[in-house]
Design brief:
The complex is a heterodimer of chains A (about 260) and B (about 260).
Chain A: E1 8-21, E2 24-37, E3 41-45, H1 52-59, E4 67-72, E5 75-76, E6 84-87, H2 99-103, H3 105-109, H4 114-127, H5 143-155, E7 161-165, H6 173-190, E8 193-198, H7 201-207, E9 210-214, E10 221-226, H8 241-255
Parallel strand pairs in A: 3-8, 3-9, 6-7, 7-8
Antiparallel strand pairs in A: 1-2, 1-4, 4-5, 9-10
Chain B: H1 2-28, H2 39-52, H3 55-86, H4 88-103, H5 106-117, H6 121-145, H7 149-157, H8 162-199, H9 205-214, H10 218-246, H11 250-257
Helix pairs in contact in B: 2-10, 3-4, 3-6, 3-8, 3-10, 5-6, 5-8, 6-8, 8-9, 8-10, 9-10
Classes of the chains: A alpha/beta (about 260), B mainly alpha (about 260).
Chain lengths: ~260, ~260
Amino acid sequence: MQPAGRGAALSIRGLGMVYRRGDSAVEALAGFDLEVADREFVAIVGPSGCGKSTLLKLVTGLRPPTSGSITLYGRPVTGPRSDVGIVFQTPVLFPWRTVLDNVLLPADVLHLPRAEYTAKAKELLELVGLGGFERNYPQELSGGMQQRAAIARALVHDAPLLLMDEPFGALDAMTREGMNLELQRIWAASRKTVLFITHSIAEAVFLADRIVVMSPRPGRIIEIIENPAPRLRSMEDTLAPEFGRMVHHVRGLLGGVPTGAAL
Amino acid sequence: MTAWLRRAALPLATFVVFIAVWEAIVRVFEVPPYLVPAPSAVAEAFVIGFARANYLGHAAITAFQAVSGFVAGSLLGLAIGILVVVFPTAERIVYPYVVALQTVPKVAVAPLIIVWFGFGMESKIVIVALVSLFPVLVNVIAGLKAVDQDRLDLMSALGASRWQILRYLRLPNALPFIFAGLNTAIVFSVIGAIVGEFVGANKGIGFLILQANFALDIAAAFALFVVLSIMGVTLHATLQWAQRKIVFWARAEEHFRA
């Protein structure tokens, strides 16, 4: 679902990445093209080692690509940008900071006024369901709660684009389902653009407006699938036949990928 | 309180038995007091020392030298450590000298330092600082470098400067390491002060120990060892207390990362 009239938030053209170590070179990503509209939720699925995380590192500007270009809100990405919020596979919270101070870390680094952003951080903690835990330390929270705090941190500096690198991969199935619902709600409430990397097909289909299916190394796009199901989606919707068909289709694409001997 | 008593009971009983056996052996075998004094003689020397020989004043001087030198050496170690980690070129220039300095036993350098800084407290403080510097420095460097790549990525993605990464990530991350170094340094600091006093001093516990040895007053020497032990244990316990207050997350850290 890509309503007309919204500009492209993220534009990736001909992106390629080759890692060199000594004489050997590994091609992680090749000829990757993707346009993400403002406020769109795009999920990227693919087998392990398909360059999903590489893609994320390139979009965040943590590494320069070998070839191609990335444009964020009209400006080419040349290094880390403050208009991007990131949620990693693990919460990456600092144990010496309270939950509130962890959420305020981007404000500290970006020299934003603390008083103003403290109010905002508290609102966000409320939004992610951590109201009342401001003064706790992350090690006192469960894994799911820690990842919620990490999401609040990624949202605090008003970055319009949220990059999520398998954020719920370390959580158990029950917690994960709950977090998917929460994320959808947060996304709808915060009106962000989300690029969500996962290796769970069901998660991708449930969350995304579009699902980008990638091939194994070097990562290329096999197909981009639209999920027109209306928002907000509930867990019941995952039982609908269209949902099942979509999951089945993506699984077929991933299963049909030529992998060495199984060609 | 009762739980504490129960926990303390066994070590306390062992201590009492040990002292009683020692006393008995010295009395039964009539061990000459210039070889091994009886615990009762040590206790007597201890009380007399504090009452007449100003042990408290001498202990204060030794403790002051140890603590000042410890603080100076630790701060220097922290400063050099930060410099070396923030400017990798500095590591190649500074570190060889630091290691070279460390391989020279401080006892060997002590007489020279007495010559340079005199018989007063300054020379002891310098010796203690030199002794304390290395364990702190090594741990500061290790701690500042032992940062998770994920945490670094997080800071980099926010566009954090080198100093921001130091302030918000590397320094707090290094605190558990730094305290490990401080714990070693505080023990070294008492040794350093005593070494300094052995080489040349007219005050302090080390000076008194030398005097007692020359006079073959072994009971007094033992009493002075007890004073030193009390000093060392107190300093170490104070540091441990500070560590628990400051690095409150360290115990949870491993569990937290898993």
